[in-house]
Design brief:
Blueprint: H1 6-31, H2 40-67, H3 84-105, H4 110-117, H5 120-132, H6 138-155, H7 164-189, H8 194-215, H9 222-248, H10 251-254, H11 260-273, H12 279-296
Helix pairs in contact: 1-9, 1-11, 2-8, 2-9, 3-7, 3-8, 4-6, 4-7, 5-7, 6-12, 7-9, 8-9
Length: 301
């Protein structure tokens, strides 16, 4: 019988996170088809509002359990003094990553933007090694490279030029996400409640995007409101999943599974937009799965 330990839980959570973020991307892509064009900041604000509400509800529940003595982890309390530093940095890096990625996707082809953004797992592993002193083997790094190559085959970036700054912003999005996940892992080491991490980040992102949303607010149809509620639900699943994943396991052993997001996104495209994967995409899916299988083999953890 296979033991489902901390690493197994981390893998399950990061795959759930990948599904949640793919669901979010699907709803964001769908939004402009049911009304006027909405700015990326407005989408980000309404996306984070629902995640904030869900995180607040979960944290309040955990607080009640903790006070009643029903939370064996004892984690549903406000962070201690030292924990606020990675908590604030997680919010800052994550928000910068979202804004940079949304900016890039509005100015360069989605394949190029998403490929550059998918450098996030590399940055997560790299900075976990540099900042947290975690050991990373060449084999683990090789599996990350293999998964990235598979993602590139699926997304097929052209890199035709003319969007240098936007491409830099897409890369900045990946850097911001990677650094944010390193902070999440450190917060997990410090036993900070996962719901509070999501709550703080969502609140910070809402406050940061509110002025930019107010400056250029676009009226929304009822359908768009419902769609953005769906995007918020997907974002909440993504945030809770990735937060739990990096609390359970070290980035070097699970980051490669974040690339399942590419497979989920392609499945949504096929099911709802009639986007049939070509031969290169099928090869890319196989390469991603091969990298995940290689990472799961004994001796890679």
């Amino acid at each position: 019988m296979v033991k489902f330990g901390s690493r197994g839980k981390g893998i399950a959570c990061i795959i759930a996170s990948a599904f949640g973020f793919a669901l979010m991307a699907f709803f964001v892509r769908l939004c402009d088809d049911f009304g006027g064009e909405i700015t990326c900041f407005q989408k980000s604000f309404f996306r984070n509002v629902l995640a904030l509400a869900i995180a607040l509800a979960v944290f309040c529940r955990d607080r009640r359990r903790s006070r009643a003595g029903g939370d064996p982890r004892g984690a549903a309390v406000l962070p201690a003094g030292r924990a606020w530093v990675p908590l604030v940095l997680r919010a800052v890096f994550g928000t910068v990553g979202i804004f940079a990625n949304f900016y890039a996707l509005s100015r360069i082809p989605i394949g190029e933007g998403m490929t550059l953004n998918k450098t996030a797992p590399f940055f997560t592993v790299l900075f976990s090694w540099i900042l947290l002193g975690e050991r990373v083997s060449w084999r683990q790094f090789g599996h990350l490279l293999l998964a990235f190559a598979g993602a590139a085959l699926v997304m097929k970036p052209g890199f035709r030029g003319g969007g240098t700054f936007a491409a830099a912003m897409a890369l900045t999005g990946g850097l911001g996400a990677g650094l944010a996940y390193v902070c999440v892992h450190q917060l997990g080491r410090m036993k900070v409640n996962g719901a509070f991490i999501v709550l703080f980040f969502s609140a910070f992102s809402c406050v940061a995007s509110l002025p930019l949303t107010a400056i250029d607010f676009r009226p929304m149809t009822f359908a768009q409101v419902l769609i953005l509620v769906g995007a918020g639900a997907g974002a909440a699943l993504g945030q809770f999943g990735v937060t739990a994943a990096y609390r359970y396991a070290e980035p070097r052993s699970i980051a490669v599974y974040d690339y399942t997001n590419v497979i989920f996104t392609a499945l949504f495209g096929f099911a709802f937009f009639g986007q049939v994967p070509d031969a290169l995409s099928v090869v890319g899916f196989a390469v991603i799965l091969l990298a995940a299988f290689g990472m799961s083999r004994k001796g890679n953890s």
